[in-house]
Write the structure tokens for this entry.
Amino acid sequence: MASIFQSIELLSKEKGIDPQIVLDAVKDAILVAARKHFKSTEDYVVELNSETGGLELFAVKTVVEEVAAPGREISLEEARAIDPAVELGGVIRFPKPTDILGRIAAQTAKQVIFQKVREAERETIYNEYSGRAGELVNCTVKRIEGSDLVVDLGKTEARLPKKEQSRLESFSVGDRIRCVIRMVDKSSKNPGVTVSRAAPELVMRLFEQEVPEIYDNTIVIKGCAREAGERTKIAVHSRDRDVDSVGACVGMKGMRVQSIIRELRGEKIDIIEYSEDPVVFATHALSPAKITRVSIIDAAQKHMEVIVDDSQLSLAIGKKGQNVRLAAKLLGWRIDIKSEEEKRQEVESAMAALVAPGAPVSVLLDHGLPERVVEQLIEAGIGTVEKLGAMTPEQLEEIEGIGPALVGRIQLAVNQYYGQFEPEEDFGESAAGEPAMAEDGAEAAETGAAGITEEAAEIREEAAAAEALPIKEAEDAESRSEAMSESDTIEASDSQSTPSEGESGRSEG
């Protein structure tokens, strides 16, 4: 015990902790060992002997009138036999030997001491490094644990996890590297300090060391986005109009930035001029691609759309979307990037969506379709003329209440509706003054006449059934169709008898 105080001082200097903390830890350890060895209910106290430099163990009892707990109390009469000056409430100490505590008690004391020292060391490390997050430190690789590295910071060890390493780098024991302090964990069993080679702060600290204008705040780093081992984008801004921010960071013949690239084992670095205008900043951030225009969709949600030429789209997006992803991270905005062709198609689709999907089926009321038929069509889910016109007669007959006669009437109303949008045909006349019609036209006239006659018959039948169309109108329609048929037949015979005139009429028509 005589040399224990010297051992405490040596341990305190080695671990960089307060000697009093180690001394308290040793006292606690001796108390734990004494209770385990003596197995009594006595209260113990450990004190440092200033003369010998050792630690002494005492059992203490409180002076009382009537003893209720013999292990912890002593009567006034017994206490005054030991110390005549003692009063009620005083304390009598009984020395206890420490050399008989035994191996198990000593082992217990050792564990307690180590635990207390580790806690004190972790507290000291936390207090020293907790406020230094993002700081650049020089360290040495001490050992390799799986995919992680343990580095020596001088006063303590730090861990460099696999996820905080660049994929371009590999290190061996003894290598000197530069890292940034990522975080300090007070409760961790492993080294409390975590360092990083993949954090954006590493690039920022390296620029601060290499560029004097950044160190003296002439140039300010406004942001940095990084994918370690691949690419980094760093935005800089000059406070002096006479100082070019990008040029100062690049250096003469690129010496400054090349030094940083060598430190990062060849990682690409884009130095971008910062702008308060997000549109201008986005144009710079998406370099080397050339941007056609930038539109802000939602300023509150920080959402913008970027349009580029078709040839620049792949360059703007980058390999696996890296360029636009880093630009979005640097700006803090959501970026939608599109080519001119994609934007044109999007605008056309939007314009097509603005066009009305079709006229309502109710417009057929103006073309002779009864109101009850319109209501039946609407109930069947047919709301537009376009949809009605695309249906076959078989599909129309499947609708309840619509038979073959009504189908023909519906088709006639649809044809009349669309016929009002078609220009009138101008049939020219031949030099002889006769109508110009080709041989094919004669056949069409005969077919058309037959079709009109059939439609007139169907209309008459439907009018008789529905009482919606007078029979006289049907007869007039039939007479008109017969007159047309007769006229067309005469024209056809004339055209056949004079083929040269028909040829002339076709050319003029």
Notes: The first strand starts at residue 43 and ends at 48.
